[in-house]
Every structure is written in structure tokens, then in C-alpha cells.
């Protein structure tokens, strides 16, 4: 069977900046058909940003897609800001963006942290959601954070784990998220940069099923964007994403009337399948797609195939 490939590269028909308060301005762009089905792409991290590749996940003839960089991320300003930057600020930002777009309801498309934000928004505003496409679901439970930053993924990647431990003294290694927070908020940029490089190298070493990073990870100096990404992601994890334990799966009854597709890599080390599986059991209209031979990244061929199939399916159904 031929796997689906991304749609051809396109340019936005509109882009701009939206002031959302607290000194934050969000970069946004709209792509595809100006009169098409409203959809919003929610990038991962927290802390990364939208990219031109994400535009290609949607049929440009059917969809009007809004992509944006969340607070402090990518092209939004101020870069790397942790002030007034929480899950619930972002949920409120989504409502502002929806109103700006003039959409009564829209499709939510997000993976990893983007799936977390989609769930938080949909459980708050279910009447505003036409459908959801989620990948590699992360819900911020303590067990999920502990898997990646305490005991779990390190047993599969012990060599890469040593690189994450490298900047942290032995007496601080019992809580890596807190130890990294101290360094990522340090006044000395050199300290922040060293911590950001180790933090991001750990994630990049585990995100794809087949990857061959160098033993020490990337040796390039950390850019301002890398530091911003690490600061924001760590900030969210340090605060347990401002979610009650188990809140998003417990609240899945709020999704009862929303159709969705969940795409999960069988060998996803970043967000193991148990979380998306448990969500699917609690969400009656979820279509669960386990992808064999795949990890976490959206660009892995089997995952990309399922994501585009889901996007096309809802394009037909919502049109």
C-alpha cells in the first residue's frame, strides 16, 4: 500500500500578530482556502512553534487552517517569556484566535503537547469543536512526567540519559525538572544555554524510532530559540501543566459529541501508548489508530499517513 505524503508546500494568504494581553503578542498565519473548513494546528513542546511543514497536513482546497506560535514561542514575543504563560492562558488565547478568524467551530489538530492543549480547550469549550486529530497523546499526569524524567525512558536510552544528567550534580538528580528549572531561569546566559542544550538533546535523541544522534548530542551553542524552547517546556512541566492529576482523561466525557482520531506510534518513547489508549476508552467517538514500527514524531511515514488520512476524512465529513 502506498503511504500518503504531505500536500504540496503552500504560503499563507494572511499573517500577522495578535496582542493577547500581559505583554504577549502571538504570530499567526492562515493557509489554504479562505472560505474553507476552519481548523487550527497546535504545535508541540510546550515551547516549539509552527513550521511550513505543518501547513502540508491539510488539503488546501478544503481547509482554512490557522497556525500560530504559542506564548513565548517561535515568532511570538517576548521570546521565551514565562510570565503569564500557562495552559489556561493558552486556552484563552485560542478563543481569541477563533473569534479573530470568525469561526463558530473548528477542527483541532495537535500532537504531543499540542494534543494536551487540544484536550484542555475541547473540554472547556466542547461546543466550539467540530472534530479533533490527536497524535502521541500527553496529558501531563505525574506518571507520564516520571516516565520521561525519572525512571522509564532512561532504561531504554541509558547512554543518552547520562548526557541529560551531565550538567546536574548528584545531589540534585532526584528531581531533574526542578534542577533544570534553576539553571534555565539563571541570570547567566551561559548557564541557561548549557542547560538548554542538554535538555533538548535528550528529547531529540528519543523522539523518533530510528535516529542516530552523536553520542554527546549536538555540540553547537544553544540559540535563543533553543533556550526559549527548553525554558518554556521545563516551566510547564515544573508546574504540572496547571492541571489536576488525571484531569484530561477524567474530563473526557466532555468530548462525547466530538468525533476524533487518535494516532499513536507503537514504540513511542516520549508519550507511551498507555495514555492515548486510556483516553480512547473514555472517549466514545475516538477512532484509535496504532501505528506499528513508529515512534513519536509526526514525520515518521506511518504516522504521517494516518494523520493525513484523518485530515482528509474530516475534510470530507465536515464539508
Would you give an account of this structure?
The chain is an alpha/beta fold. It folds into two domains: 14-141 and 244-318, Rossmann fold (3-Layer(aba) Sandwich); 142-241, no CATH class. The chain has eleven helices and eight strands. The protein has helices at 52-55, 87-101, 113-124, 142-149, 158-165, 176-184, 189-206, 224-238, 247-250, 273-282, 301-318, and strands at residues 14-21, 24-32, 37-42, 63-68, 106-111, 129-135, 260-265, 286-291. Strands 1-2-4-3-5-6-7-8 form an eight-stranded mixed beta sheet, with helices on both faces. The protein is globular and about 55 Å long.
Summed up, the domain count is 2
Low-confidence stretches: 213-217
Q: Which architecture of the largest domain would the CATH scheme give at its second level? A: 3-Layer(aba) Sandwich
Q: Report how far the terminal alpha carbons are from each other.
A: 27 Å
**How many helix segments?**
11
| Percent of residues in helices | 25-40%
Mean pLDDT score: 96
Order of neighbouring strands in the sheet with most strands: 1-2-4-3-5-6-7-8
Shape: globular
**The CATH superfamily title of the largest domain:** Alpha/Beta hydrolase fold, catalytic domain
